[in-house]
Specification:
The complex is a heterodimer of chains A (about 425) and B (about 270). Helix content of chain A is about 65%, strand content about 0%. By secondary structure, chain A is mainly α. In chain A, helix 4 (about 85-100) crosses helix 12 (about 280-305) and helix 6 packs across helix 7 (about 160-180). The two termini of chain A are about 40 Å apart. The chains are: A mainly alpha (about 425), B alpha/beta (about 270). Chains A and B meet through helix 1, helix 9, helix 10, helix 11 and helix 12 of A and helix 2, helix 3, helix 4, helix 5 and helix 6 of B.
Amino acid sequence: MTTTGAQEATKERGATARRRLGEGLPPWVERIAVPIVFFVFAALFPFLFSTGSSFIEDCTLALAYTVMALGLNIIVGMAGLLDLGYVAFFAIGAYTIGWLGSGFFSQVNNEEGWHIAVGGFAASLPGIHVNFLLVLVAAIIFTTIAGMLIGLPTLRLRGDYIAIVTLAFGEIIGRIAVNADELKLSSTPIIGGALENTFGADQRLTAGRQGITPVDKVDLPLVDPFTSLNLRQWYWLALALVALVLFVNFRLRDSRLGRAWIALREDEVAAVSMGVPAVKTKLLAYGTGAAFGGMSGAFLGSFNNTVNADQFQFYFSILILGMVILGGLGSIWGVVIGAIALTFINFWLLPDVLNDLPQKVGLDFDATQINFGIYGFLLVIMMIMRPQGLLPERRRKMELTEGAETSDETLYTARA
Amino acid sequence: MSDGDGNGTGILTTEHVTKQFGGLTAVNDVSFVVPEKGIVSIIGPNGAGKTTFFNMLTGFYRPTFGRIVFDGRNITTGRPDRIMKYGMARTFQNIRLFATMSAVENVMVGQNARMRAGLFGSIIRTPGVRKEEKRVLERAHEELEYVGLRRNLHDQLAINLAYGDQRRVEIARALASDPKVLLLDEPTAGMNPQESAQLTEFMRRLRDEKGITIVLIEHDMKVVMGVSEHITVLDHGEKIAEGEPAEVRANPRVVEAYLGKQASEEG
């Protein structure tokens, strides 16, 4: 197949296409300039505030949620699997530190506790106390497994059905967190006796709505243990987690696996017939995305100083999904912006700045009472004005504006 | 081995392959042999079961009865991605490119089965992974040039390409996986006669230069008669004729299937 045709016309077309792509960032800006500016600014930023400033607290939350949003972005944005139960991974990560870094299992080792690589105050407390870095690893392992487990039943499903299954999974984990404070470990079938010997007759699985508290503060090698007085340390740790997750995201996006995810998202039939193993590739998306949720969950457990079942509600999944959509599905920097924006709307703008606005205009409620109404409104405005997100993924933008079509959806499902 | 074959044993064989969807029999008891390095066609009126047959060959449908053997392997119940890895690549009747990936990225996905990079290797980007990425990218450009896509279009999103160029990218994507057999599902659909002639020439080149066996579903009789060494005719899911182009053209059942009974009696 040789081609003919005017060189001029091609150039013209190439140039228009490039201009249309202009909204996406050129690679060197995305890979070098933006990260440097972002991280230098972000690292120096806390010096503008006092060590205990509540604004730094909000910033830390924003970074922790950024980690989660970047995780969800792998599942929803890159691989195109709509996950409405992301809160499950937050919960599992948080319980990892709740179980492995608190006095919750107070009976272990004759009330003297187990201590693994922890120093300072925690080393003398009852309960299980494991070094934060090890907890982080454990949280990653637990949530990766959970992510793959939730992935399994969704493998034969598409679109909306995946959303329903993941939604149910998130709810199951949330309900367990609330109700397992009635669940005595000693009443477990078969291994109940052994558990009773280890954890005591009255040990429950979770602390329900009461919450597991206090939770060990982060204790890293070479630095002083974190305290709730100096929030800068927490902030920098969260920033480091964001940096790590960003790095992994970029590396994966531009790899064999990242291309396989996008190919599956674009056209599953074509991807599979081009040799992309659908099961393995999807499970890796779920596993990787979940791992980030678990990491952030473990951090937040320690930062919030409680692992409380009330944190693990459906709204949280929607909040994180909202960050991904607001920023731009599949766009890594977009999701960072979306996460920061929505966190500040949720934890700063509404409660601290606008909370008494309705009262001022003579209405009898606070802004925080209608925060979901406000998100909903924002998202609707967003979908009308800029459906591709604040900083859209190059690909996604084209899809929404030019209507990339995939047809014959039934082919793959018919296989079963 | 049936007539019209001089190239030795079959690389792809189906034995009594049948596919039923509920009460509907889409493909009924079709046996056929594709000789290695041959160019064979499957023709038949619309709804004859040609694409269903392709979907069974590539593992998207599991035959209700029958057996498919590819390159000495029984692939009857194989997964599509595995079958592709064994060396069977395909294109689709309606072009199915990854619309929002660039042409060159599309072709890189085609090499997925030949790549080794894993999750952790990709994160750390080991020297091996780096080298592989580079090789895969170069190979993708080579394949695109081989099918005649101009270099300045390689980085365009697939969706922005002209129709004929999208066909080229789809073929390049299939070729990038080093297939032994290439299944083309109506590749000339929507092409003008000149483009069709180019494609016919290209199929011969593929076979002669790369030694790839080609199985073609096609409606354009000029293309079919011009390029095929062997033709199998399906109608209502059944094989009604096969043989060399001249034989098939003269077969009254084929004329009947295409033009109706009366026409064949008159003709």
